[in-house]
Recover the amino acids of this structure.
């Protein structure tokens, strides 16, 4: 009996064959292998140290940039509310986490499109055209994000963070540092998301209570109410067009 290549081994075999054909020399000539050299040498000038520190700082910023961008946009509120919807319906992992994250991401792009367009027109395009310098471009790109966060932040959270981080009370919104505005904005988003999640839970909780009462009155105490109530919750969610209501409420909450 002959044994073929298992499906799980096809990709490594093809990759190995590709590497052999590409890197090993043939009759037409040899292909040089690329080399990577890592080492620590003594710096000959302070400029070399400065460049190395700049590269390290840029790599650090790139590693945390996705988290910063997500936390300073509407993504936090959307993903938390959609997570509450899934838990309230009791559908376990339906819709999957990847679907919720993808929907939250594209809704965030939709809601943030005016802010992103403003950043593109005022900061990115002039910088690419070499009309402004990099520090000026970063400052101009930060202004639309600050305006968005200031339009959504709650006064209570902003007062709390300013009292903790600032010695004097700010007179204008421009006096509030960005490092103070960001956590205040995140706290506001968490509070609004949990408030919306509570309102989403109420109708599903009523269905659970009704089903549990009916089962107890029928003497079916050993039957879990969740098994019976979940189809009714799905039916209610479909009949009222729940996804349109939830998504529409989320988009209007940023108006």
């Amino acid at each position: 009996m002959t044994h073929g290549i298992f499906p799980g081994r096809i990709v490594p075999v093809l990759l190995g064959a590709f590497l052999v054909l590409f890197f090993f020399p043939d009759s037409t000539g040899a292909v040089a292998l690329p080399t990577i050299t890592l080492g620590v040498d003594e710096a000959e000038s302070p400029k070399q140290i400065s460049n190395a520190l700049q590269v390290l700082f840029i790599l650090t910023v790139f590693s945390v940039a996705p988290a910063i961008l997500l936390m300073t946009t509407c993504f936090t509120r959307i993903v938390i509310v959609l997570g509450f919807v899934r838990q309230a319906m009791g559908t376990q992992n339906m819709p999957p986490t990847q679907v919720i994250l993808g929907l939250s991401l594209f809704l965030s792009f939709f809601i943030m499109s005016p802010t992103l367009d403003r950043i593109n027109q005022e900061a990115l395009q002039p910088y690419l055209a070499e009309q402004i310098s990099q520090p000026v471009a970063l400052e101009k790109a930060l202004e639309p994000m600050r305006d968005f966060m200031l339009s959504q932040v709650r006064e209570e959270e902003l007062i709390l963070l300013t009292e903790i981080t600032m010695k004097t009370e700010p007179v204008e919104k421009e006096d509030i540092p960005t490092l103070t505005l960001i956590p205040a904005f995140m706290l506001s988003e968490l509070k609004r998301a949990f408030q919306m999640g509570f309102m989403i839970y109420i109708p599903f909780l009523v269905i659970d209570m009704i089903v549990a009462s009916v089962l107890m009155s029928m003497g079916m105490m050993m039957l879990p109410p969740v098994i019976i109530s979940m189809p009714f919750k799905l039916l209610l969610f479909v009949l009222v067009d729940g996804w349109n209501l939830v998504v529409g409420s989320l988009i209007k909450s940023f108006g």
